[in-house]
């Protein structure tokens, strides 16, 4: 979310300059651009390794019928289970015959999903801000790699529990590892870097953990203070490759941009003003509040659903795509989740290339790929530990002097305008809004089995930020608008659009056009306290559409099996001139 001070409100106040096609992003020395070997974590004299292996834990309905069942589904444990079961016949497609290694990985993945879950993974008591908090020295690790955990607590001791997020029969997480008792201490005040108003905790490392025998996936490390208070630390155990699998792209750069720990984020300073905001934020500090707010609301529901469907999955982050783009090679699909705003130009280039090589893309939020960022090193030279985004003050960035194409401002703005719509098909327009989602093309294959008709609506599904098709900006063609939702934003009338297009490689690209799409997967249940009054009917509808999407995209380039979209942009936005991507 953003306030009136930020560079985009509704409707867009700034004109979008014509797109500028530039060469490949500059690979400047001293900045994290290509693949790097991560630096060793800082050592602390009092810590020792904690082996992650030796913890205490071992290893199609008619319309009335569908919508009626959807309303009843809210009484269940989760709306992600409200519709359908997986069918192996729907997962066949254009992948090459799997290798023995892929077969073994698949069997391991199925075995992991069959394990019993752990119902006690949720936080019971956050406590005061200094009760306990922590951060890792890596946003992700490969299985069996080591990471450092930096913790400060007012309690005399704490423990760490590592939970892998998934379906697990409805428990939605499994305890993979738990530490022994660790001595606690309150660490020193954060470091403040005046030049960029950056806050870093720079705490000593409390323990080292090796993710031995931890399956790939999304993890929450729960810090349990002996006082009874708790916090999360998110960690992705990433996949080395995603060939033939659906790749989930987590968004830690966006988590960090909104993180107010220490009083500063990319949106405000300690006084709450935009003018005193950070120009760069560091991963070397805890996340505020529960420690994983963005992940829990905008990413966890999709992880749970995808795991329940039994699809071949791979995991990474936007930061890791920037550093290690090879993970995209051969992926059947790449999914950008509910709030994925901050991208490097390199990440965008690699994702675009994957699309053009046949990888399906889904943008399941709004405001995606909106900010152009730079990743810089952190303490000790560790790569990609700082997110730089000067926004409206980009002219003050000394890096810009020799790198005009890498201004850390909105992608659509000078000096190197390149609106995100050329990739996503839609353009971010504004905040805040709250409106019904209105179906435009009920016959589209994504709506199969929902029973909806043209004009059917789902209250509160559009918000709090939204995207729409803007014919005057670079937009792929043919592009089909399948939902067209009237709304009011800051007193002005506009629309949110869900859109689908394909490219010559056969890849299909879907954009939901609303930030509440992933959140709605758990609407009408007790799982999400920020459901914005979305009901079980909405949750079941979004779940079924997302199931259709994931199954089709997992089968290979959707443009080869699904109908080619018939462009309707001029029909929906009559009289508008069209600019090709």
UniProtKB/TrEMBL annotation:
Start and end residues of each stretch annotated as Disordered: 16-59, 80-125
Transmembrane segments: none
Record-annotated N,N-dimethylformamidase beta subunit-like C-terminal domain positions: 159-522
Domain of life: Bacteria
Basic and acidic residues bias (residue ranges): 44-56, 100-115
Protein name: N,N-dimethylformamidase beta subunit-like C-terminal domain-containing protein
Organism: Streptomyces javensis
